Amino acid sequence: MARMTMIEAVRSAMDVSMARDDNVVVFGEDVGYFGGVFRSTQGLQAKYGRTRCFDTPISESGIVGTAIGMAAYGLKPCVEIQFADYMYPAYDQLTQEAARIRYRSNGDFTCPIVVRMPTGGGIFGGQTHSQSPEALFTHVCGLKVIVPSNPYDAKGLLIAAIEDPDPVMFLEPKRLYNGPFDGHHERPVTPWSKHDLGEVPDGHYTIPIGKAEVRRSGSAVTVVAYGTMVHVALAAAEDAGIDAEVIDLRSLLPLDLDTIVKSVSKTGRCVVVHEATLTSGFGAEVVALVQEHCFYHLEAPVVRVAGWDTPYPHAQEWDYFPGPGRVGRALAEVMEA
Fold it and tell me: What number of helices (H) and strands (E) belong to the chain?
């Protein structure tokens, strides 16, 4: 089986989908000849031509608006927003148009678009290249939201997203593009070529949207995470020597609540980790659900570890980034409660 980085896995997913279905089109800023700022679309224009992989003006609203029109016509656009931080001009199109087409047409129309965007920090991108806006999408009825943590999942989930009849927000943690970053920024990053989840089939396969994965079994405490924070949580559990069960959500909307409830009911403790700012972050929804469904099983209050309620600071990158030290302290807190 081939070994791929997450960049290569994402590119392979689009390649496989474009080869299988002539209605799949890829477009965005610099995705054509240049191959994307992270090279996620490299070679697709040369292989499929300028009508199926092409560059757009610097207009996120125009990119998503065009995709919606194409989808209503019968095409399957997979568009790229160069950084998640740039999606705000397109938020109106996403929330008022794409998310509501099935509802407002009583099922006569769907909107099979995928909006890909690199998300998160850890690359010294500062306040306008490091945001994690996933909670802005999970609040919108009609959107699906995916955040993969590894190349294998990224390819299978992206193909599933492209084949889905409804709009899917596909957030790619850019700090994971080349390796499973665990938050230990002072250490060399292990490349995906040396990680089991770097093994990715060349052909077509899908992973069901809405199904979480238990990355580490344990009985003492449940850690719920997604994206880069999955690897941080695994490192924190290992460093602390705590028998933690780590759940990789993969899909935020729809959410695999059954897996969360089963785990917390077993462990009696829960820590929720995400990189986005704390207040109104997606972790708050997870905490509320755990409280509603697992209250009589809990042995300690649920604890959140997240980014600070401030713009992502360039000069204090690793203070803001929820690293294994902060997660480890949270694990110790719930174990001692």
Answer: 12, 14
pLDDT score at 1: 82
Sequence-ordered list of residues with C-beta below 8 angstroms from that of 194, at least 6 positions apart, any chain = none
Q: Parallel, antiparallel, or unpaired for β 244-248 and 221-225?
A: parallel
User: Of all helices (H) and strands (E), which one includes residue 245?
Assistant: strand 244-248
Cβ of 232: how many Cβ atoms within 10 Å? 30
Phi, psi of 135, rounded to the nearest 5 degrees:
-65, -25
Question: Within 164-217, where are the H helices?
Answer: none
The residues with which 78 forms a beta bridge, in sequence order, are 26, 114
Q: What is the pTM of this model?
A: 0.97
Buried b (16+ CB within 10 A) or exposed e, 139-151: ebebbbbbbbbbb
Q: What are phi and psi of 220, to 5 degrees?
A: -95, -35
129 is a catalytic site residue: yes
Strands 114-119 and 168-173: parallel
Catalytic residue (one of 129, 195, 293, 314):
129
Taking the chain, what is the end-to-end CA distance rounded to the nearest angstrom? 46
Mean pLDDT of all residues in 103-115? 95
